[in-house]
Specification:
α1 links the parallel β1 and β2. With 385 residues, this protein is α/β, with parallel strands linked by helices. The chain is elongated and about 80 Å long. The strands form four sheets. It has a six-stranded parallel sheet with strand order 5-2-1-6-7-8, sandwiched between helices. Strands 9-10-11 form a three-stranded antiparallel sheet, with helices on one face. α1 crosses α7 and α7 packs across α8. The model has no long low-confidence stretch (mean pLDDT 96).
Length: 385
């Protein structure tokens, strides 16, 4: 069932649902961990019922829960609690993304579990974390994108607030949860003790503001949306070409020289308005008035060839169809397949963590059906069904 990876031998009991927790445990499964999803009987993980569907199977659920096992347990029932506790005895990590306080009410908060299972690592991913004035509030991705600042710098000047087009609130929390788990696993090899990993979606959003936050602290100005250009490097934005768009990223003076030469306008470098990056940023409108009429004369493919040859970073604006057909993406096994017993083959994104000691298979095990692995798990635990 489990393929080999750097954390093979680690067992994760996964109580999480929808996205932040399941995305984190999927990464762990890709890295070799055994992940046992503990789901509520009847409906299971909410996202089993999210469209789009392939023959009744949620493609969304399938793409975030590959390579896991499933057992349905009602943690309010004595018999199921006994099974859950047997699982915890064997587990290395428990992952949950409930609102703070829910696990305590079930009798499975960090304090209780740490007393009973001192080696167990407890990883919680929530909207606002387990401390602070907002900790009890409910949060969804869109809420923390709004509160965390990313929406205030996304979109075009004077456009209405724009959500980043993917659930980065959840996904960034998931990535930090994995980082926390792996740090805790390493510390445990030295101390023998588990610890609590407390990751908040809002904290994750604050942590990725990089340039915007640096600019505010340096200048006191509140950053606003800039469309598709970089706040402090030029030319570093999206330009129209004859047939579509092209990202041109000339991130320093020597790249600007190469760009000017490739566009057959070496005179631009001699122009005092464009001599250095700060000058180019200050005179961006003048610069774009020079570049735009030239870039629009050739297709994106033609410019890519010219600029690639010149060593200037550039690229097209790919849509999802373009990405899954891109030879670079395909060569890195970033598009993989699972064989779902009901839906058949399901295509999804692969694992971006490439490790020299382990294979990176194009085929991965599918997401489990609800309660699919019950018998085997109970058998292992020595519990009569």
């Amino acid at each position: 069932m489990h393929h080999q990876g750097p954390i093979s031998g680690i067992t994760i009991v996964d109580l999480s649902k929808v996205l932040a927790g399941p995305f984190a445990t999927m990464i762990c499964a890709d890295l070799g961990a055994r992940v046992i999803k503990v789901e509520p009987p009847g409906n299971g993980d909410d996202s089993r019922h999210f469209p789009p569907f392939i023959k009744g199977v949620s493609a969304y659920f399938a793409s975030i829960n590959r390579g896991k096992e499933s057992i349905a347990l009602n943690l309010k029932q004595e018999k199921d609690r006994a099974i859950f506790e047997k699982l915890l005895e064997r587990a290395d990590v428990i992952v949950e993304n409930y609102r703070p306080g829910v696990m305590e009410r079930l009798g499975y908060g960090w304090e209780e579990l740490h007393k009973k299972y001192p080696r167990l690592i407890y990883a919680a991913s929530s909207g606002f974390g387990h401390s602070g004035p907002y900790s009890q509030r409910a949060a969804y991705d869109m809420v923390v994108q709004g509160m965390g600042g990313i929406m205030s710098i996304t979109g075009h000047p004077h456009s209405p607030p724009t959500r980043v087009g993917t659930s980065i609130g959840d996904i960034i929390a998931a990535l930090y949860t994995v980082i926390g788990i792996e740090g805790a696993l390493y510390r445990r090899t030295i101390s023998g003790e588990g610890m609590k990993v407390d990751v908040a979606m809002l904290d994750g959003q604050v942590s990725i503001l990089e340039n915007a936050m640096a600019r505010y602290f340096a200048t006191g100005e509140v950053p606003t949306p800039l469309g598709a250009r970089h706040p402090s490097i030029a030319p570093f934005e999206v330009y129209k070409t004859l047939d579509s768009h092209l990202v041109v990223a000339a991130g320093n003076d020597s790249l600007f020289e190469k760009l000017a030469a490739a566009m057959e306008r070496p005179d631009l470098v001699a122009n005092s308005l464009f001599a250095t990056n700060p000058e180019r940023v200050a005179n961006l409108e003048h610069l774009n008035n020079e570049l735009e009429p030239i870039l629009i004369t050739k297709t994106t493919a033609q410019w890519r060839e010219i600029l690639d040859k010149a060593g200037v970073p550039c690229g097209p604006i790919n849509n999802v169809k373009n990405i899954i057909e891109d030879p670079q993406v395909l060569s890195r096994t970033m598009i993989i397949e699972t064989d779902d017993p009901v839906a058949g083959p399901i295509t999804m994104a692969g694992n971006p963590v490439k490790l020299s000691a382990y294979k990176d298979p194009k085929k991965r095990p599918p997401a489990p059906q609800l309660d699919e692995n019950r018998e085997r798990i109970l058998d292992e635990l020595g519990v009569k069904a």
